[in-house]
Batch of 3 targets.
Target 1
Amino acid sequence: MSSGHEHNGGQHDHSHHGPRVLPASLAAPEILSAWRMRALIVFAVATVVSLVAFSWSHEGRNHILRAYLLGYMICFTFAGGGLAMLMLQYVSGGKWGLLLRRPLEAMTRTIWLVGLMFVPIIFLWKHLYQWAAFPTAGAVAQALSNHAVSLEQAMTLNAKRAMLNPAAAIFQTVVIFAILGTFVFLLNKWSLQRDADPERGTEPSFDRWRVKFENLSGIGILIYVILLTDGAIVWIKSLDITWYSSIWGLQFLVGQGYAVLALSILTVILLSRFEPMKTMLRATEQHDLGKLAFAFVMLNIYLCFAEFLIIWSGNVPDEIPWYLNRIHGGWWYVCSADFICHWLIPSVCCCRAT
């Protein structure tokens, strides 16, 4: 951290100059226990409501399954995206991420729980994916004769079966979480070992750990992008078996970036009411994090709008269902709210802050 004498909100403490003295304890504050209990209560209530809705009717079951899949991807966004952002901080070495390391490490340690969350999807994915409901050529032919699928869907199911079939989907999911879990284990283990290093604070110790983290994180970011793209295709894009996109994985990656940054910023600001974050968080770090989050917001809206504009202007019959599904049946209101909440409001707030 660079030296300074800024308090939260940009106020100055003229009685203090030079580097700040860290608190005697850098442990997490006790308030986290209360936050965990509140989160557990919300989880329990939401689970009960979801189970009731799931058993209510067949249509309600389908809605709950899709909502569960969305919740699963949001959880994966924070677990996997937290891992990617942590590795990005190690590679870049930027001061912007020093305060985020502990929150990001906490996010990554939920990766195994997110992996377990996929198990219910496996047992019920025949209600979600056509490739799971019709896993063989014979099943596809039967579905086509019964008008359960269109000719285009039948041909696509047969063409994509090597990647999109129950066995392959399970294998890909296991590989994704096994590799990501290995990165999470090593980064968290090395973080504790670095803190306990007897030579901690010396230049040789700093260089040794820096190189170690950089070597793993550099290749780790590349591997993560590949695994995320694979997972996003299998878990989400294959809901529409005929759809394809060349930037699908990148859209998820950028979305994870601003979601993780938003949660991290909220976390450190809430923790700044208590030590040790109260001493460590300054206006400088807040500005850096806000500008980085704004960059992800702009990149996200650019990717989404660019894809819409290209598909709309191309007017290719195979592609236009992408935006037709997003503007009919009331989804136009959701799309408009997404534009306002995910771009307009963040843009205005970030511009006022800068």
Note: Residues 1-17 have pLDDT under 50 and may be disordered.
Target 2
Amino acid sequence: MRPIQTLTALALLSLSLATAQSSNAGTIKIGAITSLSGRFATFGAMQQAGFKVAIEEINARGGVNGQKLELLLEDDASDTNKALNAAEKLVNEKVPVVIGAYSSGITKPLSQYLARVKVPLLVATAIDETITKPGNAYTFRVNNQSSVYTRSLIAELKRIGGMKTAVVLTSNDAFGKSVLTDATRLLPAAGFTVLSKDTYDKGLTDFRPLLNRYKGQNPDVVIFASYEEDAVALAKQVRETGLSPRIIAGIATGFALPDFLKGAGSTAENFLITMVWNADVKYPGAASLNTRLKAALGGEEPSQHAAQSYAAMLAAADAIKRGGTDPEKVRAALESTKLNTAFGPVTFRDYAGYQNQNSVVGLITQVQNGKFVTIGPASAATGKIVIPKK
């Protein structure tokens, strides 16, 4: 795994040079908050790459209404209080919109604060259902909510057929709890018996007692929802314990990172991973976007988080183009957003909060020969599922 400090430093240097070049040219400032340090720094680096590529693209086309965009990027250090301090700083800078953050646990209080001060927030990666439910008039989510991942996975499991039992293990935080709630509601409705449903606290490194219990239950399906280091540990310890269901699935986040493939190596093979963007998606411009994101990451493979952040920046620029730089007018412009991007379409619909209505179907990928291959839905598939014989 490439050291996050090195990756972030390179990206920050590039961003600083671009900002310095534009700071005297009458720029429009856009605020963003993500985790450039702390436990979510890998995801923050992905978001930063997405912002950078989008701003370069927009400014190369002449900017917005004749002015270049300038990104004011704040590090929340993977901490809620620091994110709120960063938001206050950006509000004092008079930014018309803020994009962020990465983590659901950080993004929800951020959305509540920005609603109070009447500055729109574009959510790019946080998936907790409650961020937009009941929602507020100032929060717009570009990415999908957690139920999309779980619902899409269960639909794929039904399509495969022949499976009736499942266990679910998630991290004990906003993201994990949201997935656990979705899974334990949707699995029985799809005809599955949930044999175990567990959460684990941050810092747990030995999952073998849980995995050995699951082995004794002999489930058809094992579903995990975990962050980066935990995803790798789970994959390795599944092999160590001999747990061998027909399907092992990871719900996005840590499992959707290229670093999961590196860290887990051969133990990740055949995992089903839910995500909403992959390098092989069929959206126009997706291949070019993947290439540009990879360059912004210094040669590292991008994840869906980078593509989501790219789309969020495009949505912010589009709203400013139509509404100007007054936060209230930007908010109103976001309501009528209609964009086609290399991430996919972006159109917000107000149903208990403003959610991108086009982020309603998740991709099902499978790790095959060390790469994410999209195997579902059929309209997006570039490969076929492989189910190892027990």
Note: DSSP finds twelve helices and 16 strands in the chain.
Target 3
Amino acid sequence: MTSALSITAFLKPGMLAGILLFALCAGAAETAEQAQQGCAVSGQYPDLFAAQGYSKQAVNAKIQQAFNQLFYGNAETEAVYFPAGSNAAGAKAYILDINNNDVRSEGMSYGMMIAVQLNKQAEFNALWNWAKSHMYHADATHPAYGYFAWSVRSDGVALDEMPAPDGEIYFATALYFAAVRWGEGNGIYQYKAQADTLLKHMRHRQLITGNTQRGSQTGTNMFHPQYAMVRFTPDLPNADHTDASYHLPAFYEVWARVGPEADRSFWHKAAQVSRDYFSNAAHPQTGLTPDYGNFDGSPWAAPWRPEAADFRFDAWRSAMNWSFDWSWWRKDQRAVARSNRLQTFFASQGLNNYGGQYSLDGKKLDTDQNAGPTAGLVAMNAVASLAASNPHSADFVRALWQQPIPSGQYRYYDGMLYLLGLLHVSGQFQAWLPAAQAAKTE
């Protein structure tokens, strides 16, 4: 893995002053003290593939192959990353949801996170440039001011101008990591400054009412100021709900260390609130969470999507979120039991037979009852092994290893989750923090 010393070749002159990259040594055995601290503090990121006997060379080759195919493979059947010309800020590119034929803030931010973890600065910058050019609302009178349209056509025309907070959460965190890994650039590539501004809007944005394609809308902040909980959307009529897969306590802990100082205690609180939310939202037997929820953890059947009260596609990511939070920060022991319940449930369904949609108590809801698991859910269930301690844990890691790289119509969501899963399970999804901030607490 890359160390603070070997990374110096990638830094611009003067970047080392005050910025020492956190030592990264995935796959090394943890001491008892390091296990108690969590790997974002100890620097010991577990490589669960190595624990199953796969060589470092084979692991790196698998990740590189997945990146090459999803970013630079056949445009008709494999790639989701597409270069899109340039402007004054440089090259542009977007991640395309092939099935829905749109560009989503979710995918753009995932692409940036993948790029910073793999040291792909050119791709990171091109994605960020496209997002700022075609998704960002700079008009202070727009209800989504300071945010990114969650769904846009590949020609830059918005399909829905309002944001989805998971995009902003990944954008901000990827930018903070980029500032440490590559140092600050100019303009939109002043990564930390861009992240700070985004976090200020997410935390403090006031009500703005204005015209959109869907008529007059009112937008607010992305985190409820009293509950310290991420909203389903800042669009006011649906703002007092949430989405379990938007809860990313590991990232909020990062913000509590490197974000604007005035808000750091709030982000510490938000991280703990999200841990408590998972405990309330996950079913006590299956560990499944709903797609959409109320702030008390109960499912929310949205009027336009009543099936969101079940475990559907959004909810695949919940286990990843609580599991890498446990791996990074070791602040919520409940994550271990939760991952155990979830993996025990899916193992009971058959590792080659489980579906992707269930009622929370475990009734299979897939249209095709005989379809096996898809790559995205296989990846998320493998990431749950970062927290799990059950006998099935290794089986889920091996299942991800054996999973082919997604291609075809549904390769966008499956592919992004697959690549994120490979990075997490291999110990290559890491908290890029200034060394002085890694161990800080509130």
Note: Residues 1-30 have pLDDT under 50 and may be disordered.
